[in-house]
Amino acid sequence: MTDKKEIKPKVETTGHSWDGIKEYNNPLPRWWLWTFYATIAWALIYTILYPAWPLVNGATGGVLGWSQRAEVASEIEAVTASQSQLRDALVETDLGVLARNEELHRYAVQAGGALYRTNCSQCHGSGAAGAVGYPNLLDDDWLWGGRIEDIALTIRHGIRNEDDPDARFSQMPAFGDMLDRDQIATLVDHVQSLPNGADPLGGAGGALFAENCASCHGDDARGDREIGATNLTDAIWLYSPDDEILTSLISQGPYGVMPAWGDRLGEYGVRAVAAYVHQLGGGEGDAETQIGDAQAADAPIATGADPSNPADVPFPEKGDGGAASRSE
Ligand code: HEC
Ligand code: HEC
User: Per its UniProt record, what PROSITE patterns does this chain match (predicted)?
Assistant: First the structure.
């Protein structure tokens, strides 16, 4: 009986039939149709307003003149404008008190981190832990000084390079020409014993040390930051305590070279990356200890270093003192 109903439908069929199943020729639902027309209208309006139709060189521009490139460019411009304010501020600020300006400091450290990863990590390591001949920048053992101004100076002019006349410079002589093998072997033993607390001037090694080495490394063997002479009493090695390496190092004289970055990164970049390195863990001095109060500004040592420790006094013989006179 149901079969009969289906054979005489109210609506016409399309005439298609599959295994006895027929297709009604119903009109499309109205809501569907209007939605369909609306999408066509929308598409037309859109292609008139916005860039749409591909042409040989590019595409139709659209009457609104909108372009993704212009959009991005204006966004970049806005960001650059807000950053250039921070950049200017960074260049003008006194590095010693940078950390007091939280926003500027955070910006400098972030920008400096990016600069570090591109320019410095190949030598100092991506984690800044250094390698043989390339100092670790994470610890508080500094060859040339660990205040932010010292670090900036090192970065700006580099070390022992030939490009920058203001590069930090010093040279340990090649003792292979001046001492014989036995003397050098004695010195190697002596140097190896220093981190264990041996008396720098004691014994045969001490005598040789006093005569040949103490002028730079100091009677206490704690080094001299003014000439980048390493502290030999700590267990931190720029090179290595290995017999062979020490022998050739003392015979030939080490000569670590670091490029100058002032021209490449500009003053802003130098300061940013100095701020980054300074906060890695070993940075010395902070806003409070440097110019936090009048006393600190007058004190000969305003570095946050231990004043009772002679090796921590960066430039003890310059009686002019004061943080300001030493910061470049
Ligand atoms: C081509 C390798 C090289 C690159 C690149 C390099 N450095 Fe150095 N850097 C050195 C060497 C070598 C020394 C140690 C020089 C010496 O023996 O006194 C050094 C020393 C330093 C020091 C002094 C550390 C101390 O104990 O006083 C700082 C700070 C420093 N580098 C920061 C940087 C920063 C920041 C960058 C990137 C902008 C950078 N370096 C890029 C090789 C490099
Ligand atoms: C004219 C100054 C000067 C004299 C004299 C001198 N040194 Fe040095 N010494 C340096 C400097 C500067 C460095 C760092 C070199 C570098 O960074 O490449 C250094 C580095 C070293 C190092 C590397 C330490 C490390 O951490 O890897 C050793 C070891 C050393 N000296 C031992 C000696 C001994 C031993 C003598 C005496 C025979 C001596 N030095 C005499 C200036 C001097």
Answer: CYTC (PS51007)
Q: Which atom of ligand 1 is nearest to the CA of 146?
A: 27
**Overall residue count recorded for the chain in this entry:** 328
Note the pLDDT tens digit of each residue in 87-112: 999 999 999 999 999 999 999 999 99
- State in Å: Cα 226 to ligand 1 middle: 16
pLDDT in tens, 247-304: 999 999 999 999 999 999 999 999 999 999 999 988 898 544 443 333 333 333 333 3
Domains, the chain, ranges and CATH?
2-49 (no CATH), 80-166+258-326 (1.10.760.10), 175-252 (1.10.760.10)
Strand partners, 59: 54
Sole residue written with tokens 């009109």: 27
Q: Give residue ranges with CB within 6 A of ligand 2.
A: 143, 170, 172-173, 175, 187, 191, 212-213, 215-217, 227-230, 232, 237-239, 246, 249-250, 254-256
pTM of the model: 0.74
